[in-house]
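Journal club prep — side note

Before the paper discussion, L.F. wants everyone to see what a predicted structure for a comparable chain looks like in C-alpha cell form. Sequence:
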Amino acid sequence: MAFDLALEFILSGKPKRVMQLLTDPVLIRKWSGGEAILENKVGGKFEMFDGWVKGIVRMTNENELAYSWKAADWKEDTKPSEVHYLLKEDEAGTKVILHHTGFPNAEEMNSHKTGWTDFFFDPLEDFILMIDKS
C-alpha cells in the first residue's frame, strides 16, 4: 500500500518569489524559524527544521522543486520519502501543488498532512504577508 499525499496551497506571493522562498536557505531560516540548508542544484544537500529533516535535491527549475525527505525520528533503515512542488500562477498569487510520496506508514503520512499546513505553509504565508508586503 502506498502512503502518499497530494495537497494544494494558495500563497499570496508570485511564483518567482515563492520559489525563492523555497530555495534560498537564508529566507527559509527566516520564515521557518529553524536552521536550513538548500543547495539549489540536482544532487544538492537539503536540511530543514534544525536538521530534523534531511534529503537530496532531485529536481529544480523555475516552477518545480523536488527533494528526498527523511525525518530524524524515522528508523535508520527507512527509505526517504520524496517531496515535489509545482508552482502555478493564481489570481491570489501562487497555487502550490504538493506531492509527498513514499511515507513509511499511515501514521507518518497523517502527521505530515497537518504538519505541511502548521509548520510549513502557514509560516510561509505569514512571512509573505508580514515581510514581503511591508
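L.F.'s comment for the group: The first strand starts at residue 5 and ends at 11. Keep this in mind when we get to the figures.
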